Amino acid sequence: MAPARSPERRLRLVLLALVAIAAVALPAFAIGRISVLLASDPSTTSAEAGYARDMQTHHDQGVEMAMIVRDLTDDEAVRLLAYDIARTQGQQSGQLYGWLTQWGLPQAAPGPPMAWMAEDGHAHGADGAPMPGLATPQQLDELRAASGVEAERVFLRLMIAHHQGAVEMSEAVLARTGNPTVEDFASSVVASQQSETDLMEEMLAARS
């Protein structure tokens, strides 16, 4: 039987996989940009625009939680994961901002968050959160008040739910769009965040 991989080794493999995903996604993104220039831009009430706005909010909170836990733990694996989440989701948030600018649309939504996804009666996030997987202010306070291994546990639980919410949102926009740029981006989010979720579940189990 092959020896079990340590969380640290698994983290390195996941990060290498994310680099590979990016290597494939970037050329596809460039092709998508050319294709989308030939098509009409999404409207301000479209699923594409709603996804771009709401995923910015979602990703920005992911960056916030990652930076919080980096100050609360000395664990190398958790700090490396947090850094990668902050870097990746920060970059993607800027990319989403750029879409709206390119499409000539306002950054602010004309209606409530997640209206584009609620057309089929979809409920928003649990515990009063405005979108799937978004941590509540009380949960963020719990993370800030923790330290050491307990902070790692809280962070991993919240970030697992956060990633699952991002996957749900990305799968929802994939069912609603034919825009190549949005499709490539959302598919990349699904692949990368599912992989990181598997890793974080292993890390959380190791800290139980």
Model description:
This protein is mainly alpha-helical and 208 residues long. 70% of the residues lie in helices and 0% in strands. The chain has one domain: Ferritin (Up-down Bundle), CATH 1.20.1260.10. The protein has helices at residues 7-38, 47-70, 76-102, 137-145, 148-174, 180-206. The chain is globular, with a radius of gyration of 17 Å.
Measured distance between first and last alpha carbons: 25 Å
Q: What is the fold named in CATH at topology level?
A: Ferritin
* Count of structural domains: 1
Mean pLDDT: 86
Annotate the secondary structure layout.
Elements (H helix, E strand, L loop, with lengths): L6 H32 L8 H24 L5 H27 L34 H9 L2 H27 L5 H27 L2
Helix pairs in contact: 1-3, 1-6, 2-3, 2-5, 4-5, 5-6
